[in-house]
Amino acid sequence: MTDAVHHSTLNTLGRLHWYHWLVVGLSLVLTLSAWYITSKEVEQKARAQFEFQAEQIVAQVQERMAKYEEALWAGVAALHALPGEASRDDWRVFASSLKIETRFPGINGMGVIHYVPPEKRDAYLAWQRQLMPDYMMHPEHDQPEYWPITYIEPQASNRKAVGLDMAHECNRYTAAMKARDTGEANITGPITLVQDAQKTPGFLFYAPWYADDEMMPETYGDNDRRFLGLVYAPFIMYKLMDGTLANTNRQVNFSIRDGNEVLYNELNPDSENYDPDPLFRQEITLPLYGRPWQFTVHSSRIFRDQHTQSQPMMILIGGLLIDALLLALFIVMARANQRAVRYADEVTEDLRLRQSDLEMARHHLEARNAELEEANKELDQFAFVASHDLKAPLRGIIQLSGWIKDDIQDQLTPETAEYMRLLQSRTQRLEHLLDDLLSYSRAGRQDAQFETFNIRQRVEELFQLLSPPPGFQLICHDDIGDITTLATPFELIMRNLMGNAIKHHDQAEGMIWIHAWEAEDRYHFSVQDDGPGIPPEYHNKVFELFHTLRPRDEVEGTGLGLSIIKKVLERYECEFRLESDGGRGTCFTFTWPTALQLKQIQ
């Protein structure tokens, strides 16, 4: 070998080939897939929890408003039950029995608004001044009717509201007329209550009140519509929220808008557990008693703390470490192979230089061969340990993906379920690939032992070890009988050929025929199946590393089976051929040396 050719060979042996990069790439894709799927599942779980919390906020507001509505209709029922025209004292007794402050937190009071047409104004004022001489309707306005607040309890904290006429302001007046005309409870648009010293946003809640007999009061009421007035409750928005949704250890913050007006706002740095960069946001519109309330909900710092999970990052870091270890293994193996070749060259050179002293050269060669064998053993041991260390975290990913699938089984979408199936399938394929790569690197280099066995019996045992499906049968025509040969490489060839026939079969039932005979001082074997054939143009390609005729996700194999067979047969100087027309059935025929020939080859 010339120096140029020798140098080129060493360079080829010392670098990584395409199949090394393919394995590293597949491992990297597997790692990124596991990280992506886990991240998406964690995000979906957190989003579902956030949406539940947001909907619960809206539902609690809606539920509390429904409770207040029941209190208003109870007031209407009380007015119907009282004889004659209910007085201020009658209303005080009713409100006290209702225990507004304790049973209805957030409400500012409960009162009665009488409808007073212009012709009954004087009679109404005279009636009210009997018990409250200074009673006045205020402020002045230009509407043709009056909607004064007559009673409200507790009166002490709401004194400024007594006599206030709803017709003086648009939001109060519009909602009052809507409640009268629809007969349903309604709330006003945003207003400022006269009794609120802080002038914060609030609203009024109305329930209409109609006469239930033919008699109409002379002091109030619309005789044509039988309409008497409203039972109402004033609300200051922040008090309502404090009584309904106290912001303590809540996982969300929110604001409420009515049109362009802000009714309530927790989305500011002063709010408890406010998160300036929330994980999730959501807009919810709630039609509430004639008004559209717009809820803007953000996740809080508590939500972030409870739903920040490191599991996806752990998978990503673990997978990258495996990829790095795999790449390091390939680099070490390539360099070890290069050193072995250089060492062999040194031995050859030593022999050439010491031809004058054959005995010394022989002893020297034996010593060097022993060292080379030891180096090969160390290389095999290193490959085994490295493969084992690679498969340990790989099995950890397999187990972890199984746990993830079990945890989120009920939330899996069809797309996510397919991702999980692909993740587990490709992880198992990578594990098989590591085993086959180790077998390929050792093929033809291991010490094999001679063994005498019956061919038919040994082939049937190998077939059963493959755990064939129930529909598969083996027929063995053995014209040799007992044979003495190297058992390990022979079994490796037979097991791979039968395994390929089973794995690549496209039907539930199949047949494998094995024929063994002796001719021309050699043993001859043929393995034939009735599965899909191999087109002639692929007869050479199927012996290449990692080559499969079907997509990876449709077949269990790694594409190394026939490559291993080829390497073993070439090691023992055997002839082989593949026969198939691409239709049905494939026949693989090979020769095998006798025991004497094997000893000479070794």
What does this structure look like?
This protein has 602 residues and is of the alpha+beta class. Among the domains are: 82-242, Beta-Lactamase (2-Layer Sandwich); 247-307, no CATH class; 443-602, Histidine kinase-like ATPase, C-terminal domain (Heat Shock Protein 90, 2-Layer Sandwich), CATH 3.30.565. 49% of the residues lie in helices and 18% in strands. It is built from 15 helices and 16 strands. The strands form 4 sheets. It has a 5-stranded antiparallel β-sheet, sandwiched between helices. Helix 2 (18-81) packs antiparallel against helix 9, helix 9 (311-353) runs antiparallel to helix 10 (358-407) and helix 10 (358-407) runs antiparallel to helix 11 (414-442). The protein is rod-shaped. The two termini are 24 Å apart.
Task: Quickly list its features.
single chain, 602 residues, alpha+beta, Beta-Lactamase, five-stranded antiparallel beta sheet, His_kinase_dom
| Contiguous runs where pLDDT drops below 50 for at least 5 residues | none
- Main β sheet profile: 5 strands, antiparallel
Supply the CATH class of the domain at 82-242: Alpha Beta
Distance between the termini: 24 Å
The appropriate CATH architecture of the domain at 82-242 is 2-Layer Sandwich
Mean pLDDT: 83
Question: What general form does the structure show?
Answer: rod-shaped
**DSSP strand count:** 16
* Structural class by helix and strand composition: alpha+beta
CATH topology of the domain at 82-242: Beta-Lactamase
Q: Please state how the strands of the largest beta sheet are arranged side by side.
A: 2-1-5-4-3
Using only C-alpha atoms, the radius of gyration works out to 45 Å
Helical content stands at 40-55%
Q: Strand content of the residues, in percent?
A: 15-25%
CATH-level-4 superfamily name of the domain at 82-242: CHASE domain
Provide a count of the helices.
15
